[in-house]
Design a protein that fits this description.
The chain is α+β, with helices and mostly antiparallel strands. The protein has a single domain, classed as Roll (Nuclear Transport Factor 2, Chain: A), CATH 3.10.450. About 25% of the residues lie in helices and about 45% in strands. The chain is built from four helices and six strands. It has a six-stranded mixed β-sheet. Helix 1 packs antiparallel against helix 2.
Length: about 160
């Protein structure tokens, strides 16, 4: 069976765009990454987050990757299977780190993303994205680190003091 290398490469670029947009709070780019009817399910050691619909997903991500956070998502080892000209699946190994200065915690971990993609209107988009943790370490930050660069401070959503 011949591999659809063009579709595989376009899906790789899509997922890389997703990781970059998450870490930089680029909601406009994220809007183009997801289908309008997209779903997500992220399962960590202490949480399970599910959302339906691109607008709901974007709103949740905007609040998660706020101006008082620092995020790092690195996706590796993609296993992309193209089922047809319009459908594909992907398995990605995620390595991530997150600092929440509002709650004074870091989350360090790894996950396996399992995604479903569709080709619509001349481009691949994420129809479903989800992960389950392989491992996760959550630690309290007892001393604010010396942050010398902080993209989300400039570009992330400014949350009200009482926001969770």
């Amino acid at each position: 069976m011949a591999l659809n290398l063009e579709a595989i490469e376009l899906i790789r670029q899509l997922k890389y765009r997703y990781f970059r947009a998450i870490d930089t709070a680029d909601m406009e780019t994220l809007k183009g990454v997801f289908t309008e009817d997209a779903t997500v399910c992220y399962v960590g050691g202490t949480y399970r987050f599910e959302a339906e619909g691109r607008d709901n997903i974007l709103q949740a991500l905007e609040y998660a990757f706020h101006a008082e956070a620092i995020a790092f998502h690195h996706g590796n080892h993609p296993e992309i299977e193209v089922q047809s000209d319009t459908e594909a699946t992907g398995l990605w190994y995620l390595r991530d780190w997150f600092l929440d200065l509002r709650r004074n915690i870091t989350t360090d971990g790894a996950s396996f993303y399992r995604d479903r993609y569709v080709f619509r209107d001349g481009r691949w988009q994420i129809r479903h994205s989800g992960y389950e943790r392989v491992w996760e370490i959550v630690e309290e930050v007892t001393r604010t680190p010396n942050i010398t660069a902080h993209h989300l401070a400039k570009h992330g959503k400014k949350l009200p003091p009482d926001a969770e």
